[in-house]
User: Which sequence fits this backbone?
């Protein structure tokens, strides 16, 4: 049983070494996930699923350092390799208005966030955390809805917090089954 099975507990407090061997590289490589996918497919694209006001989960509040429940600004996207969704990603900024440090999020459109994060020397990243998500986790349901599939198996995910000018940005990347078709 993983921590994801205990309501109120943080499912991301588990080691990536528990993941199947083929997933470990995806979960632990702290370079740009977008660049890694691009290097393993013929055509990379990004589809914006939603953007705007959202509700924060308790473990996301803790990861962002938010101490009271409230709303946040979110951006959810699908990363596609050769037209097939391979990752569902969720970016969260505390508060319903985007802090000045992350104002660029509004102008991204269909462009990946990775270029901004990995090209800016002012951005600092926390260590990666991994989790196995299933139907008991809202992020699993978000990924299922984004792909339009009626069902998905349990999914591996990773997350980390990026800090710029003291403002945190939480990015969660949920690996969809098609990630297995790409070289690890």
Assistant:
């Amino acid at each position: 049983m993983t921590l994801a099975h205990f309501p109120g507990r943080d499912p991301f407090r588990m080691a990536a070494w528990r993941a199947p061997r083929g997933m470990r590289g995806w979960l632990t490589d702290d370079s740009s996930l977008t660049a890694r996918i691009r290097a393993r497919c013929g055509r990379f694209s990004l589809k914006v699923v939603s953007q705007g006001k959202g509700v924060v989960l308790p473990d996301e509040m803790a990861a962002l350092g938010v101490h009271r429940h409230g709303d946040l600004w979110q951006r959810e996207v699908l990363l596609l390799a050769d037209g097939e969704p391979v990752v569902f990603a969720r970016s969260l900024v505390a508060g319903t208005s985007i802090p000045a440090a992350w104002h660029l999020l509004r102008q991204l459109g269909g462009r990946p966030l990775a270029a901004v994060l990995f090209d800016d020397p002012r951005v600092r990243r926390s260590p990666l955390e991994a989790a196995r998500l299933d139907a008991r986790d809202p992020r699993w349901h978000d990924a299922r809805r984004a792909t339009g599939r009626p069902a998905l198996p349990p999914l591996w995910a990773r997350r980390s917090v990026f800090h710029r000018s003291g403002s945190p940005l939480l990015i969660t990347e949920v690996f969809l089954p098609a990630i297995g078709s790409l070289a690890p």
Summary: The beta strands are 44-55, 71-81, 84-94, 124-125, 129-133, 155-164, 167-175.
